[in-house]
């Protein structure tokens, strides 16, 4: 009976100790995704406004987005960054849909 209690206690302690680093990793991952989404939304809203005001053409916007993605390098995963006007439109549509829910 004593061995079973020691085994259960060890299991509980292991779960608690193992869960703390796991929670930190999940929190860090969620924060990274949030930063990438916020960055994309900010960039897209800015370049869309510049396009609507006639300050930048779509070709110039694509060039700026490509340069920004290059400058960030490995800081953010490439699939999380916008790289064209079409992707910006998709990001903004997704944000509007999420806000409507």
Mean pLDDT score: 74
Structural class: mainly alpha
Could you describe the largest sheet, including whether it forms a barrel? none
- Helical amount: over 70%
User: Which stretches are low in confidence, meaning pLDDT under 50 for 5 or more residues running?
Assistant: none
Distance between the termini: 53 Å
Q: Return the string of H and E elements.
A: HHH
Number of separate strands: 0
Radius of gyration, Cα only, in angstroms? 22 Å
Total number of helical segments? 3
Tell me what portion of residues adopts beta-strand conformation. Answer: under 5%
Spatial shape: elongated
Structural descriptors:
101 residues, mainly alpha, 3 helices
Summarize the structure.
This protein is an all-alpha fold.
Element layout with pairings:
Elements (H helix, E strand, L loop, with lengths): L1 H51 L5 H15 L12 H16 L1
Helix pairs in contact: 1-3
How would you describe this structure to a colleague?
- This protein is mostly helical and 101 residues long.
- The chain is 81% helix and 0% strand.
- The chain contains 3 helices and no strands.
- Helix 1 packs across helix 3.
- The mean pLDDT is 74.
